[in-house]
Design goal:
alpha/beta, 8 helices, 9 strands
Length: 268
């Protein structure tokens, strides 16, 4: 009998009441749907519970999409985690495609608007150009072959989470709890992509069609968030080399250190 993995869908939402009214009923019946509320001032929480009574609603601990996602990741109990936007830009009918790629052997299934079968009805010319440029730079610096860097429709096995080193949702320091940490914003998608690569996880790209936002305006700023993505790639590249150098030095010390006999503890 084939094992069927449990699926958790994590939906970060900030002031998305109108969109959730349409989006949540379209989601498949899975192990759990987690809506992470970003301190909304509209009826996001009430609408989520009304249109989808089985939904779990939690409140993110800081600000930003990255923190919201991590809060959902840490709350999830399924075998597979699917990242799903609340604005209607992701097609719920594609979820089985992402899950099937994982069951077939991938550690991560990453949506792509640029591979055959994928497209976007929302990307402007300038955003697409910037995305392609950042994607090319990332592939050069990180040794990857991604076709779409800045796309948040992804799924992965929950077991890989500890290896990614994401900013924890809960912090003991009260001062830090009030601030946004690096990784709490839109750069989370790039950070995940870089960490997937560093951990040598098997990433399979899945063709995806990005739909236009249904209601409201995006919180994404093409310039400032594009710069955050660029900084993320450069920081991850430097950090990766730093960790490699430290590991090499540690290995060299281990090889050259003389062996010291441990005292036996015997009394003569």
């Amino acid at each position: 009998m084939q094992y069927t993995p449990l699926v958790s869908i994590v939906v970060p939402a900030r002031n998305e009441a109108k969109n959730l009214e349409i989006v949540l009923p379209q989601l498949p019946d899975v192990h759990e749907i987690i809506v992470v509320d970003g301190h909304s001032v509209d009826d996001t929480v009430e609408v989520a519970r009304r249109v989808r009574p089985d939904v779990e609603v939690i409140t993110q601990t800081r600000r930003g999409k990255g923190n919201a996602l991590v809060c959902g990741f840490e709350h999830a109990t399924g075998d597979i985690i699917v990242m799903f936007d609340a604005d209607g830009s992701a097609d719920a009918a594609e979820i089985p495609r992402f899950v099937d790629a994982l069951i077939a052997g991938a550690d991560v299934s990453k949506g792509s608007r640029y591979m055959a079968g994928g497209s976007s009805e929302d990307l402007t010319f300038h955003r697409s150009l910037g995305n392609r440029g950042l994607n090319l730079l990332t592939n050069l610096l990180m040794g990857t072959r991604y076709s779409d860097l800045c796309y948040g429709y992804n799924a992965f096995w929950r077991r890989v989470l500890p290896s990614l080193g994401l900013p924890p949702a809960h912090l003991p320091d009260a001062d830090l709890r009030a601030e946004m940490l690096w990784g709490d914003g839109f750069e989370i998608e790039t950070l995940l992509t870089c960490r997937f690569s560093e951990q040598k996880l098997r990433v399979v790209e899945v063709p995806s069609v990005e739909l236009p936002r249904i209601h409201g305006e995006s919180n994404l700023n093409a310039v400032s968030d594009g710069l955050r993505v660029l900084r993320t790639v450069l920081d991850e590249r430097r950090s990766r080399w730093g960790r490699r150098i430290a590991a090499s030095r540690s290995a060299a010390v281990s090889r050259t250190s003389p062996l010291v006999d441990e005292p036996s503890g015997a009394i003569g």
